[in-house]
Amino acid sequence: MDVLTVSGDGSTRGFIQGQARAEQIVETWEVLRMHLTANGVDVAAVADRLLRSELVATAHQFTPDLWDEATGIAAGANIDIEQVMLLCFLDEVWSFTGGLGCSVAARSRDGFIGQTMDLPIWAAGRLMVLRVQSDLAPTALIMSYPGMIGLCGANSAGLGVAVNALEQFQADSNGLGVVFIMRHLLTLTSLAHAGEFLASVPHAAGQAYTVSAPDGIATWECGPGHVQRVTAPSVDQCAHTNHLLADPTNSTRSSIRRLTALQRALDNDLDLRQTLSHEVVLTDPRTSNSGVTFAAFIANPPADYVEFADGLTLRAGSPVWESIYYSPNASHQLGQQ
What we know:
Blueprint lengths: L2 E5 L2 H11 L1 H17 L4 H10 L1 H9 L1 H14 L3 H8 L1 H8 L5 E5 L4 E6 L10 E6 L6 E5 L7 E4 L4 E6 L12 H8 L5 H10 L6 E7 L2 E8 L2 E4 L7 E4 L12 H15 L4 H7 L1 H4 L1 H4 L4 E6 L7 E2 L4 E3 L8 E3 L6 E3 L3
Parallel strand pairs: 1-4, 12-15, 14-16
Antiparallel strand pairs: 2-3, 2-11, 3-12, 4-5, 5-6, 6-7, 7-8, 8-9, 9-10, 13-14
Helix pairs in contact: 1-5, 3-6, 4-5, 5-6
C-alpha cells in the first residue's frame, strides 16, 4: 500500500506529494486524459473552462490552505495546474462523463461509517493513503490517488466523512468543489461544526456528506442552492446512495437497488463491513456503474495494525481498499483487504 505523510501548510503539503509522487501523478493524469477523450470530452477545453471558472476563486476564498495544497502538487510534480484541477475536481468532471456510484452506510452504536468508493477504471491500482499532519487540526488518514487531495477519510478526533454524488443536480462553477469541502470537514471535530460549515459555503456539485463523529452521525444532501440535513438528530443508523432521499424521481435503478440493499442490512442488523464489500448489488459493475473500491471507518480495530506515534494505525494488505478504523479514544486506521 502506498502511504504518504504530508505536513506543514497547504503549499508545503502539496509540494511534498507532487515531488514524491511525480511519476505516478503524470501517469494518473495520462490515463484520466485518455478516459475523458474516450468519453468524447475535449480535455483542453474543459481544463481551460475549469481554470477560468469561479471554482478557483471560490476554493481560494473558503479553503485557501487546501487550494494552496492543489497548486503545491502542480509545483512539486512540475505539471500544469489545469492537470491537477482535472484530477481534483472529480465530481465536477463527472458531469461530462457520467458514472455516478458510491454507497454509504453508518451505524453509530458500532462506531461504523463506510462506503464503496466507485471510481472510474482509470483509478484502478492507483489508490494511496495521505496521512495529513497539522498543528492546527487533527491528523487525518485520507483515501486518495496521485495528484488528488482526497476522496474520503477519518481523523484522530474520531470524525469520519463518506460521500455520494447526487445525480439530480447540475454542476455550478460558482460553488466550492467537493474535494475541498470533504477535506475541510476532516479538520473538524463534531457534527455541529460540520453542519455549520456545509451551510456556510456554496456547493459546486450535488453531493451527500455523511459524517460520523463522537456526537453522532448525520447526512447532509447538498448541491447548488441546496443544503438539507436528512437524518434526525438522534438517528442511530443511516444509508445513502446517489439520489435525494425525499425525491427518488429521476434516480437510476442502480441507486435505488443499492439503497434498498443497505437499508435491509441496517434493518436486519447485518455486518455493514461485509455488506459493503460483498453485497452483489453493491459490487457488481453492472449495478454500481464502475469499478468498485471499498473504504470503511470502524471503531475498535483488530490488533494486527501498524501504529504511528500519534495513535493512528494502518493495515497493509492487498490491492482493494478496506478500512479506516477510528474512535475518539482508540486507533484510527485505513487498510486494505
